[in-house]
Amino acid sequence: MIAAVASLGGFATIFASGFGVLRLLVRWPTRLNLPEQFGLSWLLGTGVVSLLLWVSGFLLRGPLLAASVVVVCVALPLLAWKISGRSALHSQRWQKERPAELLLATLLVFQVAFVFYLAAVRTLGWDGLLNWEIKARYAFSNGGALPAAYFQSEGRLFTHPDYPLAIPFSELWIYFWLGEAHQFWAKMIFPMFYAAGTMLLTSIGARLTGKTWVGLAAAILVFFVPQIATEPGGSATAGYADLPLSILYLATIGYLVLACQQNEDDSFRIYAACLALLPWIKREGVILWFFAAFLGTLVIWRRKRRMIWLSALFPGPIILFGWHFYLAQMHAISCPEFFPVSLSTLLAHADRIGALISLFASQLVNASKWGLFWMPVAIACLYLGRKHRDFPGMVMLLGILAPLVTYPFIFIFSAWPDYVGHVVCSGNRLFLHVAPLCSLAVWLAIAWCSPKPVASETDALGAACKNVERERTPEIEFA
Amino acid sequence: MQWVRRAGAVAHFWLWAVLLAAFLLVNAFSTVRNARSTTIPPFGKFQSSDAWLLFATGATEQSDRLVTLFDSLPPSKAILILVNWKDTRSQLIGEAVAYLSWPHPVRFVDALGPNAGGEVASMDPASVAAIVFCTDNPLPWLPPGRRFASNLAVSVVNGSQ
Question: Hey, where are the domains in chain B?
């Protein structure tokens, strides 16, 4: 019981820091609803807390380190409140939902509760334990910073000491609150990511289409994808970093599409914050960062925004280079899983291309991992592609297709002697990175491309945007 | 053109109705099957590593016992882990032992390698705290050590404890 209360303290401080950052980012908090703020606070909070623990760990250890992070976590929302006044505590007014939407919301709540139950009664997967939790455990035993000996340990090279720290240091934060390393409580952060993801899917879907049921349906759909939610090796219960990365990528592209559709700054700021954290979750986040940054640049150019908005792309590389500089200072050894990208390597391994396409295609139709998920996704992509003049739809489509097309080809550079084994080992987890976004795309295709008068509503700014426009007054515009 | 729009709407509706019904039908089965395949492990701070060791060795609650043993050894001394890399269970045990033996440095030795005996014999006893056998057949000329399971035994090097 005490452990449950202590871990709640850990969760609460993560939310507080994320909420503070969110409120410092957005200028119109009344446009965000409560579930949306919950989801974003969790995503940003885990990023903030893990970065704070890592950076503060250069100077502080043990209770001092924990206390300094608590102070920042509490100070961030207070600072937001001080800067933006009472509006910092406001959110979008609760709208009366229709009975069908209430029914869908109830179903979604049961699904999320079930994922929490599954996470509680299952154990961490092998990688969840030996790639991620191990870092939290060793850092906790060393007062909050990973020991240099760990980075140089050849015997523990299989635990990938060079993987980034967002997930392990979020677990470490729970350990600080518990006062001990505890594998049960560490895994409870993953269903929180799932819950955050469902709330963001609901909110983004509802804001893009102006229909709450679309967002709810997209969130409900995700539960039926075994690789995400219920499969024993599924990321929501096994402690892998792929689910958090997929939720962060959903938020990144989702808010970019919102910024693009509604041409508003707040969504773009949220996009920038999520973009910065992509490389901090997992190494593959760098690939996702590249595509999301390219799409962000495209939106800036297409919407004729000022070049200063390109500065939104800087924090991600700063975090990435900071991490690699730190690894170099620690003399970290690594086991490269990929050869350096070069033309000679590409030519030497060009014979793999056919096999890779065939392998990845077989992974997509793996019934135990995906069921029929990719079939509606493929149709949805055709729908979105057909609406090629609709720029937000194209951003969404590129955000899905770019990683899906690229991932198979990175294995041309696989350094594993058995590259087929490498694909089998990680292929499905890579596809997971775009799965929540695909679920959103399915329902957007249904709603956006519906040949009803609705299409005319969504073409210009979208129904949700019109609601926002109605909220604006001359005073607000002037301010 | 009204009939074209209407036909489009009907086609759109039925396309997605069929697609989503097929998806739900197939995936609901997987979801139910996955949900039913859960066996509840005992609650504890080594819940996951215990479960993995149970799978690989058949013995319960090994993590705490192993940690207690490793904690009693000088932390600067290494743990030598003999693993059969061709046996997934042996590899799994070896990696779990490496995870639990922090802050000891660890070194893996291929138990079936041509030079396994030589590698162990050439070790400096002053730098090694224990030898862990993650195989059914430990090297015959070494002391048997403390057996945690049929395929997991730890032999403490003299003078380390």
Answer: 1-39, 47-156
